[in-house]
Amino acid sequence: MSENRTFVHRVIYGALIVALLIPLALLSQPATLEAPGGLLSRMRREHKLSQAELGDIDPTSATIKLATMGMGAIAVQALWHKADEYKKKEDYVNLGATLEQIVKLQPNFFRVWDFQAHNLSYNISAEFDDYHDKYYYIMKGIDFLKEGQEKNATEPRLLNRLGWYIAQKIGRADEHDLFRVLFRQDAKWHATDRPDRPLEARDNWLVGKEKFAESHTLADEQEGKGNFLKTSPMIFYSEAAKSQINYAENLEIDGTFGETARRAWEVAKGDMLAFSQRPMQSSIRERIRLGDYEAEQAKAATLAKKLEAIAPGVKQKIYQEKLATLTPAQRRAHETAADDRNLEQRELYAQSSYLTEVEWDEVAERVEPSRRAEAKEVANALIRAEEVVKYIDLEREKLNYDYWWARCQSEVLPDALAAREATYKAGKLYDQVEMEKSVEEYEKAWRHWRVILDQFPRLRSDSVTADEMVEEIERYKKALHFAGKKFPEPFILQDVIDLSEQKDPDLAAKKAQEKEQKKEAPAAAGGGEESKGATEGPKGDAEKSNGEKSGEKSAEKSAEKSGEKSEVKDSGPEKSKGEEAKD
Amino acid sequence: MVVENPILPYLQWLLEGDSARGIGGALYTYLTTAGIVALAVLVLGYLIAAVRHGPLAAGDMTYRVLLAAVRDLFGISPRRVWALARLAVKESLRRRVWASFVVFAVILLFAGWFLDPQSPNPAKLYLSFVLTWTSYLVLLLSLFLSTFSLPTEIKNRIIYTVVTKPVRAGEIVLGRMLGFAIVGSVILALMGLASYVFVVRSLRHSHDVAGAVDAKTGRGVTTEDLDHRHEFVVDPKRSKEELHFTEYASESSHRHSMEVQTDEQGNTTYAIGPREDLEVARVPMMGVLTYYDRDGQPGKGISVGKEWGYRRFVEGNTPAAVKWTFENVTAERFPNGLPVERTIRIFRTHKGIMDRGVRGTMFVKNPDTQTRTIAFPFTAKEFRVDSDFLPRTLEGSGRRQLDLFKDLVTPEGRVEIWLQCNDSGQYFGAAQADLYLRAADAPFAVNFFKGFLGIWYQMLLVIGYGVMLSTFLSGPVAMLTTLGISILGLFSEFIRELTSSVLEPDIKNKLGGGPIEAAIRLGRQSGVMTDLEDSAGIRIAQMADQAMMVLLRGVSRLIPDFSQFDNITWVASGFDVPSDLWMQQGTMVAGYLLAAFFAGFLFMRTREVGK
After folding, report:
1. Considering the domain boundaries, does residue B517 fall inside one?
2. Is B304 on the interface with A (CB under 8 A)?
3. Is A153 in the B-facing interface, judged by CB distances under 8 Å?
4. Are both B470 and B584 inside the same structural domain?
5. B336 and B416 assigned to the same domain
């Protein structure tokens, strides 16, 4: 009886096992060339989760993942904890070994590669004092990213990071001069990365560009397969062109001019042009091309004229109607010219300006019924064109596109090349204490710069060029001083100096203070009561004028330095003057 | 080499402890803990018996149990224990324990695939690898052996073939422990031997000179072996010249000796020897560190904002300095002079000259007479051992010749070595173990053995606890419990941090509270530094956490801290495992084993088969 019962139990268990196995087998049926396979197989393909689709198949990683028997997440947690501890305790050998273990468990997780590569190249390399050691860890981070890329062949962001580390970390660190030489000489690395890379192409900016370009191609391929880029496309796709610009720029910094520099800038110009023609997803709306700005602007202007022709004076009429609905104070603010508005009026204007805005479709609505449909069509096209202009402008602003495009256009010109070369030579002569010759070269450079700046005013207003030039002008002033000459007035690039002073509140304050002192000096000599405060001492004076001219922040900063924070902060008149000056 | 907690001399550790760190003598702590636990067990046993049989009968029973136990213990026969140990060995061999060695051999065979000889410190990497795998395998083996043996025998009634003979419960427990320890030790020894051969063979290498040596500068380069090459400079005046490592990796400054011989015809031959620093076990003589602040007064050194406060920093180009005071420095011990080795950390507050290291000076001073040498300049090297040799005769101020032992070392053998940073705005960082006198070199093979000693200690603990738990738990439960104890032991530092963060909260140790508070924080997505509101619910949660942490702390104190038996770092960093350390470890293990044996013996006696 007992034996019978056991037998029955066994049969039941067996049947249950088989019954459970059937759906499991159906679910996990592997795909073949003819059949799509079970549900799991189809889902894996649909979501591109199979290892072969993600990147290289790593049997070790797969084995380790299996060996953790579902405890992988806990193991990963413990390993990350260990990695943090090793980093904290500066045990970088064991940190490296732990990272290897982590990536075996999480080989297809972008953030692991990204975070730990950053750790190696940026955080750990900074811990070392010897630049060789720093370089070693930067390259370790770069190699880590390369390994990540092999395991995640469909992830363009890793290639992008790779380009960034090679270009920016090596090219922008404090030790960039030393790193760039080490990178060029790192024959072993170049041999494994791309054995056919010629010696002249071993520049970090060019190799970085290579990687960026590869990441762009990969992103395009993946987009075709429905895998969208999980980062800002504008910045992502601008990197290759920016690297070429940096390469060209660095050629000149290193003292290479003439045809080589011109060619590099030509390539940069071509790259920027290609970038501007690339349709890209903007952060707000559908695809736009940065190069379409001017065309879209012209289109909007034409359409605006066309609508005006259909509905002459309607826009102005609606504006007047809306203006009439405002309060008298608001109206006065609107009617006053922008430059003449006082603080209160500016505020009122800002608060109410949206109330007087006239939309194009409002204009179309007012058109007589026979032409209203046509007007609406034009208004819609106009709204769209203006939107496109607005979004392109927004994206261009983010990238400082106008400036870089102006640089690319200008740097290929003979005047720019000559200006750069003369500035470089003047700097070298200055370092060699050849002041007379340095002044000559500087003056030659200024003449060429004048031509370029007149042709490309955008360059003058951007801090990148302006700061660089102001720095050189300061050296030029010193060279003049040592050569026993006076600074020429009017100076050929006075507008650059003025603009830079306007942008730098501290500098502007300093200048204003100098002027003030010049003005007040005779009065003080006369013993006037008012002038006493202004000349009571260099410290108090500096604090006051800082507070007055550069606004509250500077006042606080300088007051903090002298330990008199509350006094300056509480001084009402200075504060309001400062605010005015800021406005 | 990082030594976060200075290693106390053995006897001081055993009897006095470290008052500065608030640690009592080990023996006292052990006896107190053991006494409390024994008393607690006795009281608990009595209370249970009292409930079941009444207070008088319970007292009588407790007395009788104690008496029998003492009689049993004193009656343990080494001969019978040995016989039982042999039985355990035989049983282990029947269970094919040698398979673990085969697994280890397979791991070593394929290890080369995963280990990077280009690592900044391959010796550390390779040693860590073999030692880690050895400990995993040996501990797993001990775990399975010790926990399943007794329960299986009890279940299969094989134990009756033993207990029917005149053996005592204590002998059964001790015999098992001894037998498994023998088996584990043999396997560990085999693994150690294989590991030694693997590490040394993998990393031992030499080079030849590649191409010609530049006649003018004496510069040359070696062939590439083991993925690296060296540049060297030959000084014609010397017959032996060191090679300097050129791979740009820290902690990897290994060197080779080089014999340069020029024959009568003027032909020079270069013979490059094997790697020098690989199989090394420095015996350091540590000094006592004092920081001096920028006003030249003793201070605490400066924190430069690093999370790890192990090293403090001193400012360059100011009177700030770091001083090490050494004791027992005698001419007999250092007949030729003082071999000084140092590792200095650098912190720059400005770029300075980036292609040159930060410069510093070192001088020797007599603490009694204040006589000192001139300052010897050096350029600090980070993450590598920088050696200097201070000969018997040194230069003092005014070009005065100073004798090391007459002028600079006090008659009691005390001497000071001072270090200062010379670059303005830059800082030197140092900890006590960062500068030492290289008193001697111990044989590497012996040091390697000491590295394995740590694993052996852990293995003994696992066996001890495994056998003890298997006396009253079933196999799988005993195995899981021992595994749990081992894991707790491995993470005991983390547990200490966790419990103290809840029980003694401080701004420095905020970890986000205990499990309940952490769960609340997770749900609210609030970071560990954010203070939770002072509500009744939160207070209840925190109190519950505190109760749990008190319990966890109590349990963790009864469990050996496995991380204390980690000798790998010493061996891998090229330092001799100090005798004080391994003796302390041995004593701790003996203490835990004794406790495990007593517990196992008592549990065994409570079982039918043990009576």
Report:
1. no
2. no
3. no
4. yes
5. yes
Number of helices (H) and strands (E), helices first, in chain A? 33, 2
Indicate whether B259 and B300 sit together in one domain: no
DSSP strands (E only) in B528-587: none
- Residue identified by tokens 């991380």 is B563
Q: Which residues is B376 bridged to in the sheet?
A: B362
The shortest C-alpha distance from B296 to chain A (Å) reads: 26
* A377 φ, ψ (degrees, to nearest 5): -65, -45
C-beta atoms of A129 and B124 within 8 A: no
| B564 and chain A in contact, CB less than 8 A | no
Give the DSSP H/E element, type plus range, for residue B323: strand B321-326
pLDDT band at A444 (very low <50, low <70, confident <90, very high): very high
CB A144 within 8 A of CB A136: no
Distance CA A28, CA A30 (A): 6
Cross-strand pairs, B425: none
Residue B243: HSE in the Cβ half-sphere, 13 Å Cα cutoff? 31
Binning pLDDT at 50, 70 and 90, where does residue A169 land? very high
Q: Residue B113 CA to chain centroid, in angstroms?
A: 28
B496 to each of A577, B503, B549, B550, how far by Cα in Å?
59, 10, 10, 11
Q: Both B330 and B236 in a single domain? A: no
Say if residues A562 and A537 touch (Cβ distance below 8 Å). Answer: no
Residue B491's closest chain A neighbor by CA? A78
Contacts of B121 in chain A (CB under 8 A): 93
In-domain check, residue B180 = yes
Question: What residue numbers bound the domain in which B90 lies?
Answer: 75-201+445-488+565-610
DSSP state of B401: E
Q: Identify whether the C-beta of residue B149 lies closer than 8 Å to the C-beta of residue B468.
A: no
Task: Pick the closest to residue B421 from B366, B364, B362 (CA basis).
Answer: B362
Asked whether the ipTM of the predicted complex exceeds the cut of 0.85, the reply is no
Shared-domain flag, residues B156 and B266: no
Query: What letter does residue B213 receive in the DSSP assignment?
Result: P
Q: Which two tokens stand for residue B365?
A: 């001073």
- Asked whether residue B28 is assigned to any structural domain, the reply reads no
CA distance A99 to chain B (A): 13
pLDDT digits (tens, 9 = 90+) for B325-370: 999 999 999 998 999 999 899 999 998 888 888 999 999 999 999 9
Cα(B548)–Cα(B543) distance, rounded to whole angstroms? 9
CA distance B368 to B416: 10
What pLDDT, in 10s, does the model give residues A49-93?
666 566 666 666 777 777 777 788 888 988 998 899 899 988 888
Structure-model confidence comparison of residues B139 and B557, the more confident one: B139
Nearest CA in chain A to B383: A128
Whether B433 has its CB under 8 Å from any CB of chain A: the answer is no
Candidates B129, B250, B380; nearest CB to A133: B250
Alpha helices in A176-257, H assignment, sequence order? 176-185, 187-193, 204-224, 233-253
Is B515 among the domain residues? no
- Packing angle, helices B444-470 and B122-155, rounded to 10: 30
Total domains in chain B come to 3
Domain boundary assignment for chain A: 68-282, 291-403, 413-503, 505-521+536-582
The CATH number linked to B372 is 2.60.120
Same domain, B220 and B187: no
Instruction: Point out the domain boundary residue: B275, B308, B327.
Output: B275
Q: Are A138 and A126 in contact (CB under 8 A)?
A: no
CB contact under 8 A, A93 and B310: no
Are both B584 and B465 inside the same structural domain?
Answer: yes
Q: ∠ CA(B53), CA(B58), CA(B63), 5° rounding?
A: 150
Statement: residue B192 has pLDDT above 60: yes
**B166 and B313 part of one domain:** no
**Contact B386/A at CB under 8 A:** no
Contacts of B382 in chain A (CB under 8 A): 128-130, 133
